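EI: anyone free to look at a 124-residue chain?
SC: sure, send it
EI:
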Amino acid sequence: QVQLVENGGGSVQAGGSLRLSCAPSGYISSIYRLGWFRQAPGKEREGVAGFDSNGNARYTDSVTGRFTISQDNTKNTMYLEMSSLKPDDTAMYYCAARRKWYGSATSPNSYDYWGQGTQVTVSS
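SC: here you go
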């Protein structure tokens, strides 16, 4: 079963903003680090943002300065704040969680749990 659920996707004009959220749909044990990924048609899944082994946020170059990853421990929810959106940001966005504190923050192979994705479409 899907153990992470993303929300907040939709269509937005270029230059607009969007906030994605991710929360467990059920019980998940031993979660130490979280991350966001995206995949556009015909392209590989890429890491967008995530927390490294020290708990610091890391971003792929294309979103640095525009996207912010955060988590609210009181709500057990992770967020991806996206601003200055571009058409190239159009993709299915996935949240993910890994069970170890170590591992690459932006490598899909480091993660153990995935959501089903939420579509983000940015029009020019």
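EI: Residues 9 and 120 are 5 Å apart (CA to CA).
SC: 👍
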